[in-house]
Design goal:
There is one protein chain. By secondary structure, this protein is an alpha+beta fold. The chain has one domain. Helix content is 39%, strand content 19%. Strands 3, 6, 7, 8, 9, 10 and 11 form a 7-stranded mixed sheet that branches. It has a two-stranded antiparallel ribbon with strand order 1-2. The longest helix is centred in the C-terminal third of the chain and has 24 residues. The protein starts with a helix and ends in a 10-residue tail after the last helix.
């Protein structure tokens, strides 16, 4: 079971992506000022949401279960994955994003990583001195970054790391101009994209305002969940909550650690 905040963000980002993909499939979006071709619509219909289905990287590397994924036809790896971080640190999130691409040898083209860890850390620290109030969730940064496979090199699995994109700053205020930008190529294997005649590359652009609305909604859901446990007398600290709600993440971090440490010593505008 995952936290209310985590679940709400997965639903919001998935809805944004699915709505856009459905428009592309229906031939209702434009690329370079003109309506997308039937070839683009046809190829996009092969993109399927594959949820948190386990991604196997081999016995020496382990298994990840993303928060959402999109796979082209019967490919061995999804082309795009989504990861949401609440208690997980940014360093761990970046390491995981890199591993998706490196371990799949670039078959995972794009990793969207959304982090609310700054908010989690803040309320965790506050909880050590006083009770958490709803307004405490109104401060702390929310951000995302996107890692992509570097297709400009002959070496597979090279990574283009994206910089942090702030949705809201540490005071909780909107950061104007931030955009989440994806294109159809993020969902299509590179070989398929090269071999399809007439394939366009329409964009999905999500504004900072939309991203902030989704973040606020997720935090309201988190507060209701925390407050409900308070009323019933079972209000764990944020750390205890993370341990209870994130068993999968704990296993993944353990797997990540064993992969990094030598075994002899035993980690479209909408």
């Amino acid at each position: 079971m995952i936290s209310a905040c985590h679940e709400a963000l997965i639903q919001s980002y998935t809805a944004l992506i699915n709505d856009w993909l459905n428009l592309v499939k229906a031939g209702s979006v434009e690329s370079d000022g003109r309506r997308c071709s039937t070839a683009t619509s046809r190829v996009t219909k092969s993109v399927r949401g594959t949820g948190s289905a386990a991604i196997e990287f081999g016995s020496r590397k382990g298994t990840y279960g993303p928060d959402q994924s999109y796979t082209f036809e019967d490919a061995d790896f999804p082309s795009l994955v989504l990861e949401i971080a609440w208690s997980q640190t940014d360093d761990d999130l970046r390491r995981k994003a890199r591993n998706y691409i490196t371990w799949s040898k670039g078959a995972v083209r794009t990793v969207i990583a959304v982090s609310l860890n700054d908010i989690y850390t803040r309320i965790d620290n506050l909880s050590k001195t006083r009770k958490i109030r709803e307004e405490d969730l109104n401060r702390g940064a929310a951000k995302f970054f996107i890692y992509r496979s570097d297709l400009s090199t002959a070496r597979t699995g090279e990574v283009l790391p994206g910089e942090d994109q702030l949705i809201r700053d540490v005071t909780g205020n909107l950061v104007p101009g931030t955009e989440l930008r994806l294109s159809l190529e993020d969902f299509i294997p590179a070989d398929e994209a090269r071999e399809t005649d007439g394939l366009e590359n329409p964009e999905l652009i999500v504004t900072a305002e939309q991203l902030l609305d989704d973040t606020k909604y997720a935090l309201r859901r988190q507060w209701r969940s925390m407050n409900k446990r308070k009323v019933t007398g079972t209000s764990p600290s944020p750390v205890a909550e993370a341990r209870r709600h994130f068993p999968r993440m704990s296993r993944e971090l353990k797997s990540l650690g064993s992969a990094i440490i030598p075994s002899r010593l035993r980690s479209g505008r909408l």
